[in-house]
Amino acid sequence: MTQVTVMTRQGCSACVKAEQDVARICGELGVEWSTADVDSDSEWRAEYGDRVPVILIDGVEHGYWKVEEDRFRKALVSAGKR
Fold this sequence. Notes:
Blueprint: E1 3-8, H1 13-29, E2 32-37, H2 42-48, E3 54-57, E4 60-64, H3 69-80
């Protein structure tokens, strides 16, 4: 099953918007999603900290700073076919 993770941080308004977009799209497509705070792990902070929000699909970076809806939907549909 496909899993989406939104790498976020507290006080990030772009993260809130990305979470809303991901919740809506994943809800429509029946895809599970979660969030993870980049500041809770030093490796995450080093990897993603300057680009939050970062969207991961099945642990692979899909995009950052905002959700590109058409591209995101296509990636989720493709991931579901694997």
